Amino acid sequence: MVGTVTTAGILELMDICGSARPDADRDPLKMAQLAGSLHTVANLEVIRFPFDVTVLGEALGCSIDTGTKARTPAITSHPFSDRPAELCIPSDLLSQGRIPVVLEAARLLKDREGKKVPIVAGVEGPGDLASYLCGIKPLMVYFIRKPDIAAQVINKCVDGCIRYSNECLSAGADAVVIADAFSSPDMIGPDIFRQILKPELIRLAENIDGHSILHICGRTDSIIPDMLECGFNAISIEDSVSDLGQIIDMAHAKNVAVAGNISTSQTLYSKSPEDVRNEAFNCLKAGIDILAPGCGIAPETPLKNLHAMVKARDEYFG
Ligand SMILES: [Zn+2]
Q1: Torsion of CA 253, 5, 175, 229, to 10 degrees
Q2: Ligand 1 centroid to 178 CA: how many Å?
Q3: Residue 184 pLDDT
Q4: Which of 11, 69, 143, 251 has a CA positioned 20 to 30 A from the CA of residue 269?
Q5: Which residues have a Cβ under 8 Å from the Cβ of 115 and sit 6 or more positions away?
Q6: Residues near 190 by Cβ (< 8 Å), separated by ≥ 6?
Q7: Which residues face 240 on adjacent strands?
Q8: Mind listing the pLDDT tens digit for each residue in 264-280?
Q9: Ligand 1 centroid – CA 122 distance (Å)
Q10: Ligand 1 center to 295 CA (angstroms)
């Protein structure tokens, strides 16, 4: 299976399908149109929406730079940076911000491309959501000096992730991908991950009523066994891991699928289809379950490099 479980709003697709951001981030029809083009134009067999990972943060009160055609929405304020204990998930969460837009796009997609290929809703993970709400630096300080406060914030964020994820599944998504860059060993030490994030990711996976994927960015080697113990159906990893074959063997022994891990910042973004083919072959030889970009892809990524992923799979198994 070849597709994407990470963000993939690319400029060429926006031009071809007639739906560009920022509208495609805020209008359900436009969102479904651009996401659908990942299948109808890019030929991918797993399609992911929306095209950014700030929806929950925005719904919980963060201000947003809505971005431009080539610039992804970004968080610009952290409303709980000096009052983390006050964070609570409102009962009307699901009607806040762009959540209704994503849910409507899920319904539309389910009736269209979703009849042919799995549709995957992306949700920011608890670490990323906490970093939006509190700011990365204050959150880091809480993790180190006031771990009980950090744990409380992460716990509340997981409550929000559970409610939003299950609503995406009810609306028609076949799976949710929990994307958490903050959990990466590039951001926090594996010990902190194990103490605070991992138990909450386990609770998150347990409470998602459907298929779930855990994406953590960067060099995740040191926490792969922990990621596999969290209870998600699949993990999504980047190309910076050292031994993909070994990771896939470990995952399969635990009945967990692996998605990845073609380099997004290098190969897909700036190299040739031939380079994509070679990297795809390495993933396929290692036994990858979903051949996919390793992380969110840049808007300028050439469409021919997505086509090269599909062609490589066809050639490999042909
Ligand atoms: Zn990533």
Answers
A1: 30
A2: 10
A3: 97
A4: 251
A5: none
A6: 222, 223, 226
A7: none
A8: 999 999 999 999 999 99
A9: 12
A10: 4
User: Average pLDDT, stretch 29-45?
Assistant: 98
User: What region does 283 belong to: left with phi over 0, alpha with psi -120 to 50, or beta?
Assistant: alpha
* CATH no., domain 11-317: 3.20.20.210
pTM, full prediction = 0.98
Query: Rounded to the nearest whole angstrom, what is the distance from the C-alpha of residue 318 to the centroid of ligand 1?
Result: 30
For the chain, give the DSSP string: -B--SS----HHHHHHHT--TTHHHH-HHHHHHHHHHHHHTT--SSEEE-SSS-HHHHHTT--EE--BTTB--EE---TTTT-GGG----TTGGGSTTHHHHHHHHHHHHHTGGGTS-EEEEEE-HHHHHHHHH-HHHHHHHHHH-HHHHHHHHHHHHHHHHHHHHHHHHHT-SEEEEE-STTSTTTS-HHHIIIIIHHHHHHHHHH-SSEEEEE--S--GGGHHHHHHS--SEEE--TTSS-HHHHHHHHHHTT-EEEEEE-IIIIIHHS-HHHHHHHHHHHHHHT-SEEEESSPPPTT--HHHHHHHHHHHHHHH-
Tokens found for residue 78:
């952290």
How far does residue 182's CA lie from ligand 1's centre (Å)?
10
Beta bridge partners of 221: none
Distance 62 CA to ligand 1 centre (A): 21
> How confident is residue 217, by pLDDT bands cut at 50, 70 and 90?
very high
What is the domain partition of the chain in residue ranges? 11-317
The CA distance from 208 to 203, in Å, is: 9
Give the length of the chain: 318
Query: Strand pairing partners for 260?
Result: 291
Determine the distance separating the centroid of ligand 1 and the alpha carbon of 167, expressed in angstroms.
23
Would you place residue 294 in the very low, low, confident or very high pLDDT band (cuts 50, 70, 90)? very high
